[in-house]
Amino acid sequence: MEVSEENSAVFLAAVREALSNGKSSELKEMILEDSNKHFIQSLGWDLLSAVGSYLKEKANEVETNLDCVVILERIAQIGNPKELFIGLLEQLDTFLDSAVARLFFRPLQIVLQKFGPSKSLYLDQALEQLHACIQGIPLPQYEGLDEKQRRLLIQDEEYQRLEETCIDLVEFVAPFVFEVKEKISGIEEDNLIGKKEFRTTLKSRKEIEKYLLRLLEYPLAFLEVDYNTKERASFESGFCSCTRQIMSYLSDMQCSFSSLFRYVPGSSDHAEDTLEDDQQNSLSMLGISHLVYMVHTLGLSASRVPAIHSADYLLALHKIHVATLMKKTEEPALSKGLELLDHLVSQIDNLVLRSSLLLDDTYMKIPEALIHVMVGHSSEVLRKKAVGVLPVFINKFDWKGRYRLLTVLLSSAEHSGVKGLLIGLIKDNVHQSLQNDDKSNSWFLDSHLRTIFPTIFHLSNGSETDLLEESDMIIAALNFLRYMLLRDPRGTNRTAVWSVIGQLEQGYLSELVTGLELSRLHYKQREEELLDEKKRAKLAKEGDNLSVSVGGQEIGKMPFKQQMQVLTSAQFTFDLMQSLLGRVNEIISQR
Fold first, then answer.
1. Which helix (H) or strand (E) holds 550?
2. Strand partners, 550
């Protein structure tokens, strides 16, 4: 039935009048009236624009929104799908940063379903616009929050909006996932029509797969999700459900997890024959990395991956995913990277990985990333986790590989604590080598070990080095030297330490003696000055608050008692160095 322009204009005017008077319920009755069906078919675009404009003013009115949901769905069911598709994308773009955008999800889903087999031509554009609706919602900030404070995040309005939007976006693809599942399992590839439909179905599957991986990237990779619901309820159960549902959808569509895991950005080596390179190259690497984390660390959908691969192969395959997660500074994403790495390396026996693997730059970047976390991240939990994983990772390599890793890391390290840790790991490997009678293992003995002595037994500024600032490295080095002198007799000299002991005495040890004397005098003098300042401060308005410089850094004004504790702690550190130094000299003289 054709509708005259005059009647259309009258109907549209009535619609606008109802909206201008705030009578959304009245408009709902008009739209649902079967006799107005032909007006909706011809005026779908105009009706959509009118409702969108109305929602800009009434976005916070719940009852109005409920009426508009019914109106929009009715328009989607009856109107021209091509026309409405463009109109709905425009409305989503208009409300991109507003909760109102969610009201258009269901109408867009209805319109896409009306396209039938040709919907694959529209899916990409629709799903891209949908994902943009969640990218503007801020992520929860976990930094500096304790467990109780993190639980309180669920009360935050933006957090709830993020969760609700994520749930809606995952559920949006449900009918399309079901359709792909049915067609893949039921299509006969023997006939031409079946093959054409099969290719169209694969194209739809790839678009949905890309979309789900993007959701795994943002927001899910950046959220803390508790899957251990048996012990206690998850305070992010909505996000937990989203993650599980995504895994279920990927499995239902028979997506190849193995192909996804082998995917490398910019390469089509593992692309399916039916996919174009540009589609394959658009996959989210962070989303895939999150998928790897869930499969291997959490065991979700683990049955989708063959259980035939060796542990070292899995590390080789997933090292890029570990690196991808660990590049992120956000605590949840970085934590996932650390947990994935810890899981992968824990499955490998020590000394299994060949040193030749280090020719692959990614293997070298992993310990560098761990050190970056140890030194620079604000989370103490993640710093300790990185400290625990580093030696485990290094120990998986053969002796040559361990030697290369430790020497390269030590030569590039700038933080005294990191240097101290690495020297301690070198000492552990020397100990294992001395216990091992295998003559072929000489990487932590004799000439190879001697090569790194200058890096270990070194003061950056000679006797004028700030010993407190470099105390971690110095104490580790003295402990290492003491160990070798006790464990390796002069007669055997397997560590070559006795070959350089004269140089060490004249250089490193002598400079350390002088440096300790200068440091003690400096801090003693500073303590006397502080006591004097304390006396004079009683007459000043500032009272107790003074300043002190320790370890090369100026400490801001602090109470006198706290400053004295800092200076006392420095003296204890010097006492420890002095004790170790005295013991080293004693062993040298006895031997």
1. strand 546-550
2. 553
Q: How far apart are the first and last CA of the chain?
A: 110
What would the pLDDT profile of 188-215 be if each residue is shown by its tens digit? 555 545 677 788 889 999 999 999 999 9
| φ/ψ (deg, to 5) at 20 | -65, -25
Nearest-angstrom CA–CA distance, 196 and 366: 45
Contacts of residue 226, defined as CB under 8 A and 6 or more positions apart, other chains included, come to: 232, 234, 235, 236, 240
Helices (H) and strands (E) in the chain, counts: 26, 2
Angle at 216 between CA 165 and CA 123, to 5 degrees: 70
Angle at 493 between CA 478 and CA 485, to 5 degrees: 25
Token pair in block for residue 327: 């590049």
Residue 335 burial by Cβ neighbours in a 10 Å radius (0-12, 13-18, 19+): buried
pLDDT confidence bin for 143, thresholds 50/70/90: confident
User: Do residues 107 and 72 make contact, with C-beta atoms less than 8 angstroms apart?
Assistant: yes
DSSP state of 505: I
Q: Which helix (H) or strand (E) holds 558?
A: strand 553-558
- Residue 299 identity (one-letter amino acid): G
Q: How far, in Å, CA of 489 to CA of 415, rounded?
A: 32
Residue 300 has pLDDT above 90, yes or no: no
Q: What is the pLDDT of residues 322-339, one digit of tens each?
A: 999 999 999 999 999 999
Distance between CA 378 and CA 115 in Å, rounded? 51
Look at residue 209 in the predicted model and tell me its pLDDT.
96
| One-letter identity of residue 263 | Y
d(CA 128, CA 107): 16
Residue 492, number of CB atoms within 10 A of its CB: 10
One-letter amino acid at 216 equals L
Give the CB-side neighbour count of residue 585, counting CA atoms within 13 A: 13
Count how many Cα atoms sit within 13 Å of the Cα of residue 514 in the half-sphere of its side chain: 13
List the one residue out of 400, 378, 375 whose CA is nearest residue 390: 375
SS3 (DSSP) at 588: helix
CA distance linking residue 462 with residue 550, whole number of Å: 19
Coil/strand/helix, residue 546: strand
